[in-house]
Amino acid sequence: MATPERVVIAAAGVVTPIGQDLEAFWSSLVTGASGISQIERVPVADLRVQRGGEVKKLGRIKDWRGVPDCRASRLLIAAADDLCAQAGFRPLPLDPARVGVVVGTALGGVEEGERALAGDRGRRRLPEALYDGPGWSLARWLGARGPVITVSTACASGATAMAVGADLLRAGEVDAVVAGGYDALCRFVLRGFDALRSLTRDEVRPFDRRRSGLLLGEAGALALLVRERDARGARLGTLRGYGSASDGFHIAAPEPEGRGLERAIRAALADARVSAADIDLVSAHGTATRLNDRIETAALKRALGRRAHEVPINSIKGSLGHTMGAAAALEAFMCLLSAQRGLIPPTLHLEEPDPECDLDYVPGQARPGHPRIMLSTSMGFGGCNGALVLEAAA
Amino acid sequence: MSAPAIRGLGILSGEAAKSAQAKSADWGSAGAISGPPHAKSLKNETVDSTLQILALPRPDRPGDRFRRATRECLLALAAVDAMLEDGKASREAIAGERTALLYVTAAAYGASNRAFIERRGGVMHFAYTAPAVVPAEVAIEFGVVGPYGILIGGAPATLRAIGQAARLLDAGTCDRALVLAVEIFEECADLYARHRRSYRWPLVETAACLWLERGGGELSFESARGGPRAAGVAGAGERFAAGPLADLRDWRARATAGPVELSGRWRGEQARLHWSPEKSHARGSAA
Lengths: 394, 287
Prior knowledge:
heterodimer, A: 10-stranded mixed β-sheet, 31% helix, B: Peroxisomal Thiolase, Chain A, domain 1
């Protein structure tokens, strides 16, 4: 079978609770900064847990004219602004019809739906409330006139979006794709996770014996993808492979043995044409729920074999919370920046390792390392499992 | 890319439900469905009577597991049942990790989102508000644990999902692929009525599942912005993502040999899928 065309991640842009550009995001990760705070933008007094990774002020863009008054769209566009500043991508340097947008989200513009149901009869409320609304807002802001695709594989959405973006390039449908993920903190999701009792009142402690749940965060994370033959200048790395698999087990709980995640990892390695022995770093989903971290550990051990015990594995959710649709894209960027900068960010708040999570989860401080091939894993509601294989820029 | 072969297609349509209500006809291959379709006026807002929604009733599926399942989930399961019946296959034929599942919807999650926001219908399990839970119920019920994808959008997204299924089959990533589309409107009738000029009424609730396997013809997909609204959409009315599968059903019903062109438009994107099967996939011939 022919080797699929390589897809390059030329640049990335982010807006997160720990920094509103890629450089600030990276600095916060390696210094162990936390973006968790009391949530201020929406009422939370009636909720059991009132903290999260909130972006306090979207400061990047001064003029929001022409952009809907929709938090999700604005997070996405703020991330795109960072991306465009780095890549010189606005105004578009190529035919707008050859530029695609692929974004992943767990919630879309659901907050607009909340507003519409509360009586706000604004003309844009319903179109923005549909989950593909923010993706179209981003395309309008960019001036892109190629395909606009929204995927919603729950908390694996960012990984799926990058894979679909790579497929568009390989199919020759476009020459560049802005791909990634986003989600905003709103009453809807805060109330939902509060009701599920998934949120912790403690710190988010992935793989720690004392871990007691996750905190939600909001973010936008976008990459510029191009075919390798079209890539010019600096690049972050290469998207080598993607795999997905359903659990087919439960609508909210992960399959107890992590078989779906294991299948997704194996599929990603096969797609990337690499073996477990090639993996140098794993960015774990690592939500810090009792079940997730134990199951993920088991799945990594089976999928990677002995290599699982040899490679550093980190989770960045202790720093910024679980950013849902943005999480997988942010974690992919973290992997590529680790390779570029020679540092692996720590798993924040991991202080007392859980005997059931007995791999090297990078506690304490950032450590030196030069990973070349990296694996990033994601799991979501509905038994969605996704895995990306990334390669450092030469 | 190679055109996949159609192994089965199951459709539940609000059009048929309306007709069944009028004629007391049976529900075809849709399985047991109870309760009449009805239009609602929600939150004391008047819904223009000309803005009709052809609704599907909530399927009645036995088993405690479905006690809290949403209407869109149950309709998805009924569509898969109908697909298996059309393909004269047992559920074991689609189980396992060699079956891919691609789900497409523009708005089916609106009903459960609204129920959760307004705290209606007893305790809505929060997970049911996620679009991902519709294919998850199919995966759980039928043991489909292969690659998956979930696209949010209208008809172009469904055409793209068929193309994606063809690519997965071509690449040998799976042996069969299911393209599932569900659209329901009734619970948000008042919201759609506010934006009445954005849609082609009536809104026709539809749940459909298409079973594809490797084939030998040619499949090509193209999309562009702008252009005239697509012609040839099945029946009157709007089905969002489910439209192309209803068109495919109509094409098969005509037992037409030769190629079919499916088209659709959403938010200004016009997409076309040209499907030239090696031999006819029309029902009653080579399907």
